[in-house]
Write a structure and sequence with these properties.
The chain contains eleven helices and nine strands. By secondary structure, the chain is α/β, with parallel strands linked by helices. α1 packs across α2, α2 packs across α4 and α10 runs parallel beside α11.
């Protein structure tokens, strides 16, 4: 089998052209351009077998990132596996907002990422704003191990804490709190296609708002005066999250849109002194 035949096979089986190229490129460790200019290059029997295996898995909705073992996020290459949600480009919107706020939050702002997964948000913030002291929390030992390995490999100094949302942060305050929590409703029709990713990272079950409620409720006890809370949420949850933030006493409540123009991140500023 040569490169052209492998790519044709992927298309015939129903994979789109770009995905076929990404899969084969990762397997052969070459750029997409190489595949196009070397379409008569032969695959070894071992490469052909692995390609067939990856193709079958991809057609069963296994994320490309799990097959190739990594995902690009905000300029970083992150290792990912089935313990971690695959970082999404939409989440870069949250990181960009955080990076706009950080310079106004003091000389050495403290930031924390709740439900860090692969470490994507925390590591991207530390990478682009080294003066911040960055912490990251996750309940899943498998996710934390992956996040820590990513931090080591990228030589980014982030503190990792195991626990359930606020639990490992007792008594601590931050200038910036960010999270991309599970927010898909338990009966959302998109969930089956995401079945290879950790369900607990995708949905808190119910209406999808349970984790967002915990985050809004608990944030004031962990925010410094003037600190910000930024939360990613579902395309149809901006109204609910905005209402939760306002009801809890946040000011400057605002939303940011994702690449598909959906309101995807909401945030607010904690106004006063130490709060209950
Ligand atoms: N944005 C992801 C998706 O819709 C979900 C991420 C999450 O639940 N935090 O696939």
């Amino acid at each position: 089998m040569n490169v052209a035949q492998a790519l044709a096979e992927a298309r015939a089986r129903g994979l789109d052209r770009l995905e076929g190229q990404l899969l084969l490129g990762a397997l052969l460790n070459v750029e997409r351009g190489w595949l196009i200019s070397h379409d008569d290059a032969k695959l070894t029997a071992e490469q052909a077998a692995r390609f067939a295996d990856w193709l079958a898995q991809r057609l069963q909705d296994v994320p490309l990132a799990y097959l190739v073992g990594s995902k690009e996020f905000h300029g970083l290459t992150l290792r990912v596996d089935a313990h971690t949600l695959v970082p999404r480009p939409d989440t870069e919107v949250l990181v960009d907002w955080a990076l706009e706020l950080l310079p106004g939050l003091g000389a050495a702002p403290r930031a924390v990422d709740l439900g860090t997964g692969s470490g994507a948000i925390a590591l991207a913030i530390k990478h682009r704003f080294a003066a911040a002291t960055v912490s990251a929390v996750d309940l899943s030992p498998g996710a934390l191990a992956m996040a820590q390995a990513n931090a080591r490999r990228l030589a980014l100094d982030v503190e990792f804490l195991a626990g359930d949302w606020w639990q490992p942060l007792a008594g601590r305050r931050f200038e910036l709190i960010v999270s991309n929590p599970p927010y898909i409703a338990g009966d959302d029709p998109h969930l089956p296609a995401l079945r290879h990713e950790p369900r607990s990272a995708l949905t808190p079950e119910g209406d999808g708002l349970a984790a967002l409620r915990i985050l809004v409720e608990g944030a004031p006890a962990h925010l410094a005066s003037g600190g910000w809370l930024l939360l990613e949420h579902g395309y149809d949850q901006a109204g609910a999250v905005t209402a939760l933030l306002s009801a809890r006493g946040f000011t400057e409540v605002a939303n940011r849109r994702d690449l598909g123009e959906q309101p995807r991140v909401s945030g607010g500023r904690w106004p006063g002194g130490p709060a209950a």
